[in-house]
Amino acid sequence: AGLRAGDIICAVNGKDTLTMETAEVASLVKGEEGTDVEIKVMRDGQYVTVTATRATINVPTVTSKMLPDNIGYIQITEFDDVTPAQFEENLAQMKKEGMTSLILDLRNNPGGTVTAVTQIASGILPEGLVFYMEDKDGRKDEYKCPGADFEYPVAVLVNEYSASAAEILAGAIQDAGIGKLIGTQTYRKRHRTEPLSSGRRLGAQDHDRGLLHPRGTQYPQGRNRTRLHRGAGCGKI
Length: 237
What we know:
By secondary structure, this protein is α+β, with helices and mostly antiparallel strands.
């Protein structure tokens, strides 16, 4: 389609997308197979317009391989409806091959659905609350996991293109105490963050609620404020 890694989508079919969430942008890009969509991106400081033809593409969202010293490596490229099943299959294969530790690669992962990331978290985190969101009116949505039989140390790779659901999973793993984050500041670069080693400012964004923040810290996203709180079990971002 002519799109490149690092392109920032600015508009789809003439509609500005800079303030939209990943899911909103994706809904504009998706459409009837065989139709064209015009995507305006920022690339190397310049605007570039790309015309792409919509088609059904079946691309695995999870891949894995065994590294030396029985280190399992699993990469998740996005959190789609098919991702939990693919993750479970790849994780089972790594265990079968004798994995003793895991590298989870979330670099360049733009996010996806909260449902998908919560299902994956449920496969590796201990029992309890993964995270909950509270909006400006005090309404809460809780996401819990039943507890998983998972006893492997984890290293989570992140970078500036790790966003949304990827940040949720990375932060939950870190707060649960089963893994560490390795990499650079994640996508929430619009808001001040501390180095990843501190674990206190790893931001994430839900598709409908705006900015989420670890440990109940509250930051504005437009006119709304949303807080992400830690639970007693699984750890929260």
